[in-house]
């Protein structure tokens, strides 16, 4: 129940459910809702993802410098299965600084051109509030289409105006 109350802070449908539960409790009626329904499980997982992503970006925002790591491979359905990670410095409670690597997003796309993959990555970064000015390094392992796009514009970074030497 506490988890659902936490989720209700961010999600209107969870807040509506909490309201219904409270009304049913006051009226001494039994609720006929399955909290573990596929829709509710999906809501919980998506909310957890959002909270973790926000924590990653807020932690990375302290330094405003990060390396973007993108990797993809074609799955059995001929879609491009892709992951986007950030590598950045994080300060622990004792003041020590260490490098961390965090998974930011997993997505699929049917088109594998460098332009489409670039837009997917930029879309994820924009959605979480990551500024491309913070990029100090990039890695696109296994993304041949992106390498071709990079070769066509050596002076310009794949994701924006970043020093090409950082590539």
Task: Describe this protein's structure.
This protein has 167 residues and is of the alpha+beta class. It folds into two domains: 2-53, no CATH class; 64-166, Nucleotidyltransferase, domain 5, CATH 3.30.420. Helix content is 43%, strand content 23%. It has helices at 2-10, 12-26, 38-61, 114-128, 144-152, and strands at residues 66-74, 80-91, 97-109, 135-139. Helix 1 (2-10) crosses helix 2 and helix 4 packs across helix 5 (144-152). Mean pLDDT is 76; it is low at 151-158 and 162-167.
Weakly predicted, low-confidence segments: 151-158, 162-167
Strand proportion, as a percent range, falls in 15-25%
Measured as a percent range, the helix fraction is: 40-55%
> Could you say what the CATH architecture of the largest domain is?
2-Layer Sandwich
Find the structural class using helix and strand composition: alpha+beta
Short description:
This protein has helices at residues 2-10, 12-26, 38-61, 114-128, 144-152, and strands spanning 66-74, 80-91, 97-109, 135-139. By secondary structure, it is α+β, with helices and mostly antiparallel strands.
Any key phrases for this structure?
flat, disordered C terminus, alpha+beta, single chain, 43% helix, 167 residues, 23% strand, Nucleotidyltransferase, domain 5, four-stranded mixed sheet
Write the layout of secondary structure elements.
Elements: H1 2-10, H2 12-26, H3 38-61, E1 66-74, E2 80-91, E3 97-109, H4 114-128, E4 135-139, H5 144-152
Parallel strand pairs: 1-4
Antiparallel strand pairs: 1-2, 2-3
Helix pairs in contact: 1-2, 4-5
